[in-house]
Amino acid sequence: MIFYHFGKYILLLKSVFRRPEKASIYKREIFKEMVDIGLGSLGIISIISIFIGAVTTVQTAFQLVSDLIPKSIIGSITRDSTILELSPTICSLVLAGKIGSSIASQIGTMRVTEQIDALEIMGINAPGYLILPKLLAGVLMIPLLVIIAIFLSITGGYFAGVASGAVTAAEYIQGLTTDFIPFTVTVAMVKAVIFAFIITTVSSYQGFYTDGGALEVGQSSTKAVVISCISILVADYIIAQLLL
Amino acid sequence: MITAENIHKSFGDNQVLKGINAEFKPGTTSLIIGGSGSGKTTLLKCMVGLHEPTDGTVEYDNRNFTTMNFEERIAIRKEIGMLFQSSALFDSMTVEENIMFPLNMFTEQPKKEKLERVNFVLERVNLAGKNKLYPSELSGGMMKRVGIARAIAMNPKYLFCDEPNSGLDPKTSILIDELIKEITEEYDITTIIVTHDMNSVMGIGEYILFLHQGQKWWEGSKEEITSTNNQELNDFVFATKLMETLLKK
Prior knowledge:
By secondary structure, chain A is an all-alpha fold. Chain A contains 8 helices and no strands.
């Protein structure tokens, strides 16, 4: 069964990458999706990022009981955990819930109300028209959201650390700038792009092959979130193994 | 002309169509009728390529649609207009954007010309001035008429209608039927309508194909339909008391 769905998913992707009928219309759709995915998710990403950074700093400080370890290490730990794991992965899991369910229900509703059939009858490549703009918008905007999340997370950690007295501002900044490996940012960006691909395509697949009515649209939406989240975590492990 | 030859369609073990043969002529309103589950909509979907027939061929003016590749099918589909049972209007677009959508996608006309075409087809379906309304603001009959306007916006050679009267009151149904018939004759379109509405059959049916249990059970004209000895067809035609009463009169 899993191979059947994977094969169908690959065939759908093949249709997605067919030559667009009219580039200008696709361009307009891509910008619309970029606003929906990017700006529409900025609020929630900002809030969770600030708190993830704050919690990481406070909990790291709590575990550092030895006087032999410099306090600046709190900044380093917050920085590396945020860049490598927390920002790309947690943000993508949240986005899988927000964007993934929205994509699946939007495309699923179009399927059950025959709007996709109408596109096909007009001679439009429905997978390309419906999925490609979402995919490109996701791949462009989710890495940007992850960059913002990293920045806000580290800032949140700074304020929480200083406010609680767990670390001084100077120690935190010293920790941030010590032994920084720029490659970790590359890893975060690779994760963000792959996770964006997973979220948009898995959710589109679930929506595109919805069969039935309102109940099935809801089920597709739930499946899209669950499968996206699991795929993100599996991909996270594979990327970590391959790149680190 | 559209020709369906020996069309079979199965979904798993369920054989829905069992070798349908039919010819639909241009400028003629052809009706596919039959009870629920008889395979009418499946046949229609096989003809437009929304379902792939398990066996058999569909030809559009001697062009074999079944064996065509994706690009060739796209070319044929630009000659097809279709009215869906649910109207299938894009709910995020206004009436004007819905009708303009295929024009935007496939023509290089300036916006003014496209707008003129939109206004022309809207006037044709008696909806002039409704350009800026969204589908959610329209009644069922208006949605069907916008569906027809969108279907004819690209001057199709073939028009398919899936249950155009479903969910409409008898008066609006007659208006929709008459509109489809007028458009068919005006533009010499090959029109195929799937319906189980006997008012439509008696009103606009020129060629009628009756399906029963996935097979072609009967074909003929609306004049012949009431005088046939076919038991299944009679059961279908005279299922409504109205038909029986009218015929007795």
